[in-house]
Design a protein that fits this description.
- The protein is 82% helix and 0% strand.
- The longest helix is centred in the middle third of the chain and has 30 residues.
- It has two domains: 172 residues, Growth Hormone, Chain: A; 195 residues, MFS general substrate transporter like domains (Growth Hormone, Chain: A, Up-down Bundle), CATH 1.20.1250.
- The chain has 16 helices and no strands.
- By secondary structure, the protein is mainly alpha-helical.
Length: 391
């Protein structure tokens, strides 16, 4: 029950990423704002999330995992509810920043708590990835269903669901012991001095720029109702979930993590070009299909960041997420501003170039990623059928 309570809250936390997608045009109208101003909802959220990643390990190692989860949930509940009361786009941007702080505390701690509470670490990681995929796919649907009634409703809905998660974790999750060694504030930045982790993190920064160009700007060019936008991004989220859980692991074993990253970045670049050059139907199709390489990247980048260095996993995760979420913070505003002032195809051209830049970093710094080949070989060995005895 501890595992399922945490997993439920994780689903709702990840829903918050795509929740606002279907209502972005409605917020623009309701608050008399421009698309680039509304895109700052993503920027403030991910900028605070990125910076807060540097302190999550410091906090959880001092107050324990359960209290960190509850603190994160409490912040999300408060700021999501406040977001629903906003009277200006500036207020909404500020409340989303507070939401990002709570989300960072929760998301950074949830995986460690699930693994610690579950009987099988491998099953717990699969459950966490499933929660991520379900949250990304459900967020646009919930945003559409509630947002069609009123753009404020999705924020109040998220606060309500998070309150349910808070009660479940408070009552069902056993208190987690504090780590024997407290994490230093400087630990995540020190971890980034490792060549392999730095390579993974900065490649993921370019990938996230491309990822959030699609997520933040596409709703403005679809020209659809909240239901239509929600349906498109639900399909996108399903592709993310299926490819991250069911396609990425066997593909890693077959061709290796680095080759999967090259493949998925190339595929994402192709789909970005497809969006840029297509009419309305093509935009819908390529947006949904973009979920496939995004799902592959999410899984492989995260696992690579955990395995490529000798830093403790929570520390490596914090440093990696600090860098990669900067891409999520920059992309929404930059892409929307370019789309407003130059043309709607320009953000996707830039997103494709970012994918190519990520591939270039992987190639130039490939010698820093040799340890991933050994990890892939270990996974393949453990998953293989036992050889028949020669006697």
């Amino acid at each position: 029950m501890s595992v399922w309570a945490t997993a439920f809250a994780a689903v709702v936390a990840f829903m918050g990423i795509g929740l606002v997608d279907p209502i972005l045009p409605s917020i623009t109208q309701g608050l008399n704002a421009t698309p680039s101003q509304v895109s700052l909802l993503f920027t403030s959220y991910f900028l605070v999330t990125a910076v807060a990643m540097l302190i999550t390990g410091w906090v959880s190692s001092r107050i324990g995992g359960k209290r960190t989860l509850l603190a994160g949930l409490a912040l999300v509940i408060v700021f999501a509810a406040l977001a629903g009361t906003s009277t200006s786009v500036g207020e909404l941007i500020g409340f989303r920043a507070g939401w990002g702080l709570g989300n960072a505390l929760f998301v950074a701690t949830a995986l460690a708590v699930i693994v610690g509470a579950a009987s099988s670490g491998e099953s717990a990681i699969i459950l966490y990835e499933a929660a991520l995929g379900l949250g990304l796919s459900a967020g646009p649907l919930v945003g559409a269903l509630l947002g069609d009634w009123n753009w404020r409703a999705p924020f109040f809905g998220t606060a309500t669901l998070m309150a349910v998660g808070f009660v479940l974790i408070a009552t069902l999750l056993r208190a987690t012991p504090k780590p024997a060694v407290k994490t230093k504030l400087s630990a995540p930045l020190r971890a980034l001095t490792h060549g392999g982790l730095a390579t993974t993190a900065f490649t993921a920064l370019f990938y996230n720029f491309a990822f959030f160009t699609i997520l933040a700007f596409t709703p403005f060019i679809l020209g659809m109702s909240p239901y239509g936008i929600g349906a498109v991004f639900f399909g996108w989220g399903v592709c993310v979930a299926l490819s991250s859980v069911f396609v990425a692991p066997p593909l890693q074993r077959k061709i290796g993590s680095v080759n999967v990253l090259h493949l998925s970045l190339a595929l994402l670049a192709v789909f970005q070009v497809g969006i840029a050059l297509s009419g309305h139907a093509g935009i819908v199709v390529f947006t949904i299909l973009a979920g496939i390489p995004i799902g592959l990247n999410n899984t492989v980048f995260t696992e690579s960041a955990m395995e490529v260095s000798d830093a403790p996993r929570p520390v490596a995760s914090a440093g990696y997420n600090f860098v990669r979420w900067m891409g999520g913070a920059l992309a929404p505003f930059v892409a929307t501003k370019l789309g407003e002032e130059i043309g709607t195809a320009v953000p996707y051209a830039l997103g494709a170039l970012c994918c190519l830049a990520g591939m270039a970093i992987l190639y130039v710094r490939r010698h820093h990623l040799r340890s991933l080949a050994r990890v892939d070989a270990d996974h393949t060995f453990h998953d293989a059928e036992p050889m028949p005895s020669s006697t």
